[in-house]
Amino acid sequence: MLETLEFPPALARVAAHAAGPLGAARVTSRTPASDPVAIRAALAQVAELAALLLHDDGIRAEPVADISATLELLGVPGSALEGLALADLTVALAAARVTAADLKRLAEAAPRTALLRVDPPPKELETRVQQAIAPDGTVLDGASKQLARARAQVREARQRLVKKLESLLVGLDPTERAPDAAVTVRGGRYVIPIRSTARSHVGGIVHDESATRATLFVEPPEVIELGNELRAAESAEQREVLRVLRELTDLLRPHRDAIAAAWEMCIAFDDLCARARYAVEANGFVPAIGEGPLKIRAGRHPLLGTDAVPFDLDLAPDEFTVLVSGPNTGGKTVLIKAVGLLSLLAQSGVVPPFGPGSQLPVFTEVFADIGDRQSIAASLSTFSAHVAVLRTILERAGPGSLVLLDEIGSGTDPAEGAALAAAALKALTHRGLAPNCCFCWSGRWPVHRPPSGCPPP
Fold this sequence. Notes:
By secondary structure, this protein is α/β, with parallel strands linked by helices. Helix content is 47%, strand content 12%.
């Protein structure tokens, strides 16, 4: 039913205010709660931060990367994180430190918001990783003295090898060199390009050839040992890189839980900031939750923006049914979808476009039949499809349910459709045993008054 009421697109509008993709994903994954205490607490937290944003737009969440796989690997003894994972972790540690400082600063003005704060891991962890890992995940020379020495040896071995190959290439007869010949690499070995006719004269190992086979890429015998020395130096470098990665991983592993909690704090704060910014943009007011019948003041459909015409809707304690009648394009469907969507957003911890003085019951279930449900594959006409949905609603709906039906009884003979609508309306209205039941209907009746037994529109 959430898709029928366009709940995902409404959450997407809220998520657009998030600083990072994880915060946005947290917003779009929100679902309606049924605990009034939890709903009130979530909305109060949003309202508290929104009030601060009105005067201090500088409050910002810090975006963080998805480090869930990194945290999982930290839990595996003996594992080693890759350089890029460590770089992302460094960004997360920095974001957590900034977020924790912001939440501490907001503690007095926004105590509910400050409840998100956890102590970040020691700054020394972030500093140590930054000294060893570049933002692109490369292990820096300064990560260890041994690594700096190993890379110096690699550079020296490479220079000796390239210099020798260039000397051999210059010494070849022009008829033996390939056009525009230069030292290159094939299969991890440094080689020179020669004409295939010079193969026997140059000797050595052929590592590749051109598409026409006219050019061979050869490692001359004079440089094979130099190439082996370079490979040995590169292997020593890689062993030291792996040792550094293991050392950094072992340094971080005891702080895994603290890192996970700090990362979660960043995502939760981004989620909260997005909802607070949306509340400011929508000029929404927190409704009273579970304190009486439905009462909407200056409500607007969340997907229509601030230019939408607001509406008021009040139900007395003994009223459970609203019937909306009127001409085509009169806004009936928008109204009933707005009632459902506003309620779902509020129960999901989002302050929707409400005016002051609104109040909402807590709906335990929401049922909606809106739009054309025709299905060729299931051999269902529009009318048959609506009847199938209505049957499910009649079987499951009860006290605490919100039922939204659009054009009930349409798609068939007007008299039969009106009779079906009246029967369904009576059945559901008689189940209104609690003040948090609401059944909204939309339709154009084929007579001058609603069917017998229905409340007046």
